[in-house]
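Re: the multi-chain job from yesterday

Posting the exact lines I submitted so nobody has to dig through the queue logs.
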Amino acid sequence: MRVLTPSGLDHALALLAEFESSLTPLAGGTDLLVSWPHQNSDEVGFLDLSPLRAEHSAPRLEQDALVLSMLTTYWDVIASEEVRTEFPLLLAAALKVGAVQIQSAGTWAGNIANGSPAADGVPVLMAYGAEVVLRSTRGEVRVPLDRYYLGYKQSVRALDQLIVEIRVPRRKREIEWFHKVGARFAQAISKLGVAVTRDETGHRVVVNSVAPTVVRCRALEDHLDQGGKIESVEQVRALLSFDIAPIDDIRSTSRYRESVLSRLLYFYLRKANLRKANG
Amino acid sequence: MSLDRVDGLDKLSGKSAFVDDLTVPGCLFGGTIRSPVARGRIRKIHFSTAVDWSDFVIVDHRDIPGSNEVALIESDQPALASTNVRHLHEPVLLLAHSKLHRLREGLRSIRVEIEAAPPLFDVEAQPTKEMLQHGSDNVFKRIDIRKGDPASVFAKASRVIEGTYRTGSQEHVYLETQGMIAHQEGETLVVRGSMQCPYYILDALTIAFDRPKERFRVIQCPLGGGFGGKEEYPSVVAIHAALLAEKAGRPVKIIYDRQEDMAVTTKRHPSRVRHRTAVDDDGIILAMEIDILFDGGAYVTLSPVVLSRGTLHATGPYRCDHVHVHGEAKLTNSPPYGAFRGFGAPQTLFAIERHMDVIARDLGLDPGELRRRNLLCQGDTLATGQKVQDGVDLTALLARGEELAGVSLATQEYAAFNRSHPYLRRGVGRATFYHGAGFTGSGETHLASEVWVEGLADGRVRLLTAQTDMGQGTMTILAQIAGETLSVDPRSIEVVTPDTSLVPNSGPTVASRTAMVVGKLIEDGCRELQRILDSGSGPPSGKDFQNALELHHRENPGDLLRVSRSYQTPPGQNWDEVSYQGDAYACYSWAAHLAHVEVDLRTFQVRVTDYVALQEVGRVLNEVLARGQIQGGVAQGLGWTLLEEVILENGAMKNHQMMNYIIPGSGDLSPIRVFFEEIPSPSGPGGAKGIGELPLDGPAPAIINAVCHALSASIREIPLTPEVLMEFLGGKE
Ligand SMILES: Cc1cc2nc3c(=O)[nH]c(=O)nc-3n(C[C@H](O)[C@H](O)[C@H](O)COP(=O)(O)OP(=O)(O)OC[C@H]3O[C@@H](n4cnc5c(N)ncnc54)[C@H](O)[C@@H]3O)c2cc1C
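And the result, C-alpha cells for all chains:
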C-alpha cells in the first residue's frame, strides 16, 4: 500500500498527473474505507487530501454563489448559520447523511465523486443548479452537476482531475423540498430520495436511487413549468417513467421505489399547487 | 434498590478488555475457509501457487484428535467438514498466520471444489427422496401437546376460525462479534473468549479432543452482548482456535469480523404457525388446534429445545379445555438456526396474539374484550395441565395496560383522524402473553446447577458461578442478592469471573434463569453461611455477619469456608418428557404490551408512536437493570417486527452487513414506558422471576395488531417492511 501526502493543492495535482491511474484521492475516506478488510489486493495507492483541509474546507458565500470547497464536510454546512439559512435543503440533506461521525468526516465533493446513485448530497446540489469545478495541471473546467454523470459510477472527471469546488448559485426560490426514504430514521442508505425547487429558471425535480445516476425528472419538470396540474398519483408516475428506471436490489424493490416516489411527489406537489393557488 | 453496575466504570472507561483487546505474545491470527455452496461433496481443496504456504498453519478434519463433532444435543454437526457439506459457509479448513494481512491473502487464495448436490431451502415443501438428509423425513424434533378432545369439539363447532402466521429470521447483532483465543499452558489447553456458556464449550472440547475435562480450561472474557448468539456457536470457534493452537504450538486468536459473523453464525428460527380455533358466539374459545413448523437449518444444534419452548407458549395465556399443539423442527440447507432471546416463544406468541385479533374482527368484538373473556384465571390449567396459581390477575393486568396506553380515547380520536388525513393512519394494538422462566420441563433437574458461596477471612463474601455477564448485569444482580440476604454492602461481594478451573457448573446463562434459578441458589447459600456462623443468637447479618466471619477464620486459620448449593426440584413439580404433561416451567412472568402506531401511506413506513410494557415479574430486583432489559427487549422486538429482514441467498444471509441489515436506531423508537407488578414467587430470590426474554414476546403482535387496526387490514407476516406492506395493500389508497 502506498499513501502520498501532498504539501498543497498544486502538489496534489502534480502527483495525480504523475501517477494518475494508480492513485486514488482520499478525502474523508467514508466511502473508500468501508470495505477495507475485504479488498482483493493489498496493492493500493492513495493521495491523502487531508493535509489540505486547513485551506480547502470552509464554505464561503460569494456575490452570486455559495462555494463549497474541495474538503467541505456536511458538518461544515450544518455549523454555518449563513449557509444553513440560505440553503435549507443542504442542511436537510446533511442531517440525513450517516450520523455525526460521518457528517464530520464525509465531504460533498467525495459524495459527488463517488458517483453512487444513492448519494444524498447530490440531489439537493443538483436541484439548486450547482456546478462542479474540476482542476488538473492542464487547467480548470466547470461542469453543471446535471451533466457531470455519464452512467453508473461514470463521470466526465478525468483521472488527473480533482473536484476543487462546488458552486451553488444564489437565487430566490419559490419552493424547495427534500425528502429521503431510508430503511430507518437515520444512518441508512437511501431507498429513494427527492429534491424539488422552483426559481426563476423553472422547476427542478431531482431523485436518487431510481436510476444508474442521480437524475433530473425532466418530463415532470416540463409539465410543471408549463403550468400543468397535478391530478393523480398515476399521472405523476407516468411523467416520472420518462426519466427513472428503478431496479430491485438488496435495499428495496423497483415497484416500491417507483410507487413511493410518485406518491411523495403527488402529495407534495398538490400541496404546493394549492399554496400557489391560494397565495 | 438499584445497585450501580459493578462493571459499569470499567466498561465506560474502556478498561474492560474484550477478547480482541487481549494481546498474547507470539499469537497467530486464525481464519476459516468455508464451503462455497449449500450442499455437496468435497472434491478437492486448491491452494494457489502464488502464495508461499510454508509459514501458514493449516488444519483440516484429519487434525481433530477426537470425534469430529460440535457436541450438543446430537452429534451430527462436524467441527470441520470432511466429505460432505450441508450449508453455505460450512467450515472446511482453518488457517493461521502471524500477520493479519497474510492471513487474509491466504484466505483469498484457497478454493474448495465441491460436487454440488441439490439443496433444500423451503422448509414447508415436502422433501423428495434426494432431499432427505436427516432420518427418514428431515424432522429434527416432533412434539405433541394434547388436552381434552379437540376433534369432537371441532366436529360440532359452529364457528371455526383459521389463520396462518409467519415470522422471519433475526440476527443477534451483539456489538462484539464472535472471538476466541486458545493456547497451551503445560498440559492444559486454555480457551478464553466471548461466550454465554463456559461449560458447553468445555464439554464440546472434551469430545472433539477426546481428553478429560481436566485438560481444558475455559475462561470467559467481558462480553459485548449475546442475546443467545453466544450460547452454542462459541463452541465452534473454541474448537477451531484450540485445533490451530495445538498444531501451531503457539497461541491463536480467531475474531470474526462483522460480515463473517452475520453470514455464518446462528439466527432466530423462521416459523410458520397455523391456527384453527373453535369459538362460540360470545367469543369463548372452545378448542384449539395449532400446527408449528420451525426451520432448523442444516444441523440439529438446539432446535429441539427451541421448538419445545415454542410449542409450550403456543396457546397464549388463554383458557381452553381442548387443545392439540403439534410442532416440528425440520432440516433445510441453511446455516443452523439457534438460540435467540425468547427461544421459540416470540414466534408462536406472535401467531396466537395476531390470531386473537383475527378472531375478534371476525366476531365483531373489541380485541381487548375478546381477551378478557378468555384470559386464564387462577386455578385454570395450561395445555400441559399445569395449574396457574401464582396469584396474577390477567384481566386486571390488561385493563391497567389499556388505561396506561389511553386505549379508549385513542380509539375514538384515531377513527376521526383516519377519516380526514390524506395519507396518515393511526392505530393501537395489544398483546397479552407469558414467558416461562428457567429451563423447560425437567431441564433444571438434569442440569443440577451448583454454586459456591465462600466466606473470606477479611469478612467479605465471594460468589462462584458459571454465570456470564453479557451486558445484562449478572455480576451486579448476584452481588445484590447476596448483599441483601446478608444485609451487607453489595459492593463488598466478590463475583468471580467464570473460569471452568475455578467455578462450579451452575449451568448456562440462558432461558431467563440466572437471576431466578442461580440467584435463588446464591440466596440459599448465603443463608446456609449465616447458619454455619450462628453462635446461638440467630443467623448473623450485617456487621454481625462480618464479625462472625472474621472470628470464624481467627479460630480456624486457613479454613476454606465454602458452602455449595445445588438445584433441587421443588416438591410437587412434575414433568413428563414423553407426554408433555405437567409443570413445563417452575413459574411464568406475565405481561400486557400496547403499541400506538402511525402508518404513512406515501411511503408505507410504520412508526411506533407510543409503547406501554406492563409486566408481572414476581419482584423487581434492580429497577434500573430491569427497565433496561424491558426497553432493550422491546427495541429488539420492534426491529424484528418492522425492520430486520434476513435476506437469504443460497440459504445464507445475503445482507450480512449492518449497512443492509437494519436494526432500529434511537430515532426509530417511541417512548417505551415500562411498568411492573410484583407478586412474589417461591421460585426466585426475594420472589423474583425471570425477565430477560419476556419483552421480546410482545412487540411483534402488539405492533402488527396496531397496524391492522390503523388500516383495517389483516397482516399475518413479519417483518413488515414498507415493501411488504405496499404489496399487501396492493398499491391501493
Ligand atoms: C456509516 C456510513 C454512513 C453513510 N451514510 C451516508 C448517507 O446517509 N448518505 C450518503 O450519501 N452517503 C453516506 N455514506 C457515504 C459517504 O459518507 C459519503 O458519500 C461521503 O460524502 C463521501 O465523502 P468522503 O470525503 O468520505 O469520500 P472518500 O471516501 O474519501 O472518497 C469517495 C470517492 O470520491 C473520490 N474523491 C474524494 N474527494 C475527491 C475530490 N476532491 N476530487 C475527486 N475525487 C474525489 C475518492 O477518490 C473516492 O473515489 C455513509 C458512509 C458510512 C461509512
